[in-house]
Prior knowledge:
This protein is mainly α. It has helices at residues 2-26, 35-41, 44-80, 84-87, 89-110, 124-164, 169-193.
Amino acid sequence: MGYYSSYYSYGLPTFLIIVIALYLLFTGSGEAFNVGRFLEETSPYAWAGTGIGLCIGLSVLGAGWGIMVTGSSILGGGVRAPRITTKNLISIIFCEVVAIYGVIIGIVYSAKIQPVPEHLLYTPQNYFTGFALFWGGLTVGLCNLLCGVAVGITGSTAALADAADPNLFVKILVVEVFGSIMGLFGLIVGLLMVSAADDFSAGLGVAKAVASPYVL
């Protein structure tokens, strides 16, 4: 089972990419496999929207994953030791904060999206803003995803340890707090990545729109 899952996760996508690349090469369409063309002809709005979506989506995924792991352990341990169900809810709060980080960054990023006519959209400043929002959103989303998983696993361990020995709860809670701070680091990095990016603008008097041969 592990062999087939590894094949479909890594082997099949790699195989398809190689087949498509060879097809384009041997049919005289190799120039279509052009990363620069893809970056130029893709709207900055698309990069910005994708980044915001990844930021919120991955953050919520990490929070949900952590709540699932922690909640199941709290319910399971609460059967033998009902006293743990109340104070271990703090682990659920830590997981939920991860999703809040993503929502906050998503709101901050969406404020930079302003309506611009299409013929004035493709300026260096707007390209920079679009790429900054995309990579910033991806960075924040991945940080919050991993943070949610870390907090969930640590919270699960805290609940089971508390059920066995109440003296262990505070000690493991310290580890959980440090794990949750990783999401805050991601939030700070996301803000730094877009600190130099301006809002989308027509660029009148600032920079002339880029007349790319790939943008129709």
